[in-house]
Task: structure prediction
Amino acid sequence: MPGILIRWLVTTLAILMIPHLISGVRVEGIGSALAAAAILGILNALIRPILIVLTLPLTIVTLGLFILVINALLFQFAGWVVSGLHIDSFWSALFGSLIVSVVSWIMNSALPSSDMERTIIIHRSGDPRIIDMRRDKDDRWK
Result:
């Protein structure tokens, strides 16, 4: 659960950065950014996979670039839902969604994963055939 909250805050920070980089996006405050990040997270979890499947032929023809359009439309939709997030045009939404994606990717890749190290014990007796496996930092079993 804390991982979701951290990612939500990371997305909020990314949304707060956008008006400083793009003139067509305005965020009225941190509350609006928090709401926009929550709406964007819900849209990305529920609606985005459906849109990607429905537009798969177009995504293949454009070599995946149509996913940028889907991201921009979802970002623009979040702007319509959240009253404190104003997006002037599709191009502003496109560049804004790119910034959110890049900042979130960079910050989330810097955060430790919660399942970095797991232990699996297959047999618990004093049997010497016990297999004890752990994941290392590169996510490989050893």
